[in-house]
Batch of 2 targets.
Target 1
Amino acid sequence: MQTKKLSVQNAIIDAAAEEFFKYGFRGASMRRMAKNAGTGIGNFYNYFKGKNEIFAYIVSEQYAKTQIIISRTVSEKPEIDFNSIRDIRLFCQEFRHWLMRAEPLFNRKMFLLLARSEGTPFQSVKDEIVTGLTQIFTSFFDFRKNAEIVPPSLFFEHIINNLIQIAENQYKSAHVRQIAFNHFYSSCLGYILCSINI
């Protein structure tokens, strides 16, 4: 049995993340992962028992972080009452500041959870996030009963799909996190300003 080396493990993890990005969980090949990591399939099994284990290893921390941020935000009151702000510039500043707590969610691992996890225990993450965002925004913002406004759940489903598209197009970019966050911020801000009275 070969001795485990951190450099080999990291190479396997990097190759696996790339494989999952390209092919999704179901289409990913452990042989390709091993080859792209510069090791053999036998040595691969010294580090991970299979696709389920390595996918979970890559995304579990991100999943836990996402759950914490959403549940914490749902349960706490915001530091500022957005419904009492009547100055649009101040509203935009305060909203961006409040939304920054979610910035750690905008990364490559989150993309794997949202778009490449079908066939894993994480495949419901997209629905969980849409539900969580809908709960947060409907409790924090006083949406008008307006037939012309898209329901929050449909809006957030659309936004998540847009973020997936951004991640697919910008996956290798060092700025993917900032690009995704800015899109999320501007889309949510536009939706809120169209939906509430300021």
Target 2
Amino acid sequence: MTYRRWGNQTVEREVDPYGLVLKAGTWYFVGSGRTYRVSRVLTLQTTQDTFERQEDFDLARYWAQWSEQFEARMYGERITVRMTRAGLDKTRYLLSGYQARVISETAPEPGEEFGFPTESTRHAVADLLKFGADVEVLAPNEVRHEIMDTIKAMRDVYNDAKLPAWFR
């Protein structure tokens, strides 16, 4: 098959098909110990070759393990924060399941510093703003300042400051 990897790199792969998984409306193809997003398969050619799937292969178990590893890579950055009890309680419904699980396993006490899992600085700012005054960013300063700038801009909007032309 011809496959378009992340970053638009095209690769040729010969794979043994193990199964298909539908997650949140997106199809994934599992083959030869790898996972592929079906929408990124550019061409597919069948052959007369056969293969023997491992007897102990379990698609559901494979998917659960692969998903956990993928999320761990995706949320690999940490932002140092502390939260109130209300903030810690909100993690279950304001964040992804993986983020909430990591924070729960860390089990920080209210006011205790911990590493908030995130994909990037940009994602961290969006996620942390959801908590309002129930979170304080301690590091890095870049995230702390971006949140402060966003809060100042919001204050201006809600204090009837002159709005930018694009906002009217």
